[in-house]
Amino acid sequence: MIPPLLDMKIYAAFDGRQNKKPLHELCMELLSEQKNTWQDLQQGYESLEAVRVRDITCSGFFVRVQHNPGRIRSTMAEVGEKGINGRPCFLCLNNLPEGQKGILYQEEYLILCNPMPVFSGHLTIAHYDHQPQSMVANIDTFLQLMKDFGSSWTVLYNGPKCGASAPDHLHFQAIPSGNLPVEKEIFEGERVVLITEIDGVQVSRAEGLGREMLVLEGDEPKAMANTFKRIMAVLREFSNTDDEPMMNVAGFHNGKKWCIMVFPRAKHRPDAFFREGDGRVAVSPAVIEMGGVLVTPMEKDFEHLDATIVEGIFGEVSLDRGIYDLFQF
Ligand SMILES: [Zn+2]
């Protein structure tokens, strides 16, 4: 049974069986309806039109820097236990803004419009219940989301300790495909190098992007889920942790197969984030940043960021190449 609090928030429902409309069409309808009826969202998209962007060419790759003052709360979010316990969870149903509605997805999630968008479509797919962010337990949903959204959308995941602004509430994001530079860069030249193949799933590493990145490609959901779990187990062992290994994930389904990009992480924020005064760099790397779009709410950082700083940040927060030695299945 659908809880009454959830029922009030449903704009439409999608379960993949009875729907005549594809999910991406429903989402575009939601976006346009919410822009008309929810003022915060309208303002969020108006301020997105005013953001400045600048491309920085690094060694063998590029990043796009976006000066987006609206993202200050997300970039500076206090995501430690103290910060999380001291605030009402903004993804819980009883805390959603009055005007916010969503698409009930597979009877378990609400697809919501992000009121502080980074791109021209920016959705949050939040479980209706307050439960911890975890990929292992929810890889099947992640795969289904990519398939249901179709090839024009990319689905994102931030680990609870490296970018999720609500690490205590299970959620994914979706953005229109083609916004992250890596989506194109991995297919250029000989960048993707096959490491191994497991049950028909190709596991590769992407080279020359200034940060480590694994690419999983396959067309069978069970094999994709199992391979992903094996990769996670390797990362967990390498990171010497019982928790979920730090990582960001972006992926899409091109109509034939899945392509999942995993960014294994060594740390959440670079040292420069915590410096006092002029030396501070307000960039908090999460999946969008690892994908090549560096969002900063500060004009100073927008002006000052250059290839050396960007490469330094990536090098610092990314796990090192030693991980590949462990991928001998
Ligand atoms: Zn919550």
The number of domains: 1
Percent of residues in helices: 25-40%
Question: Which oligomerization state do the chains in this entry correspond to?
Answer: single chain
Main beta sheet, described? 11 strands, mixed
Number of separate helices: 12
Task: Summarize model confidence as the mean pLDDT.
Answer: 93
User: End-to-end span in angstroms?
Assistant: 44 Å
Give the H and E element order: HEHHEEHHEEEHEEHEEEHEEHHEHH
- Could you give the count of β-strands? 14
The name of the CATH topology is HIT family, subunit A
Strand content: 15-25%
CATH architecture: 2-Layer Sandwich
Low-confidence stretches: none
Strand order within the widest sheet?
A: 1-4-5-6-8-7-12-13-11-10-9
Mind telling me the C-alpha Rg? 19 Å
Ligand kinds: zinc ion
Structure overview:
- With 329 residues, the chain is an alpha+beta fold.
- It has one domain (4-269, 314-326): 2-Layer Sandwich (HIT family, subunit A), CATH 3.30.428.
- Helix content is 30%, strand content 24%.
- The protein is built from twelve helices and 14 strands.
- It has helices at residues 4-7, 23-37, 39-49, 72-75, 81-85, 139-149, 181-185, 221-239, 271-274, 287-290, 299-304, 307-317; strands at residues 10-14, 52-57, 62-67, 102-105, 109-113, 123-127, 153-158, 171-176, 192-198, 201-206, 214-218, 247-253, 258-264, 293-296.
- It has an eleven-stranded mixed sheet with strand order 1-4-5-6-8-7-12-13-11-10-9. A three-stranded mixed sheet has the order 2-3-14.
- A hairpin with a 3-residue loop joins strand 4 and strand 5 (109-113).
- Helix 2 crosses helix 3 (39-49).
- The chain is globular and about 50 Å long.
- The model has no long low-confidence stretch (mean pLDDT 93).
- Bound molecules: zinc ion.
- Residues 89, 91-92, 130, 169 line the site of zinc ion (ZN).
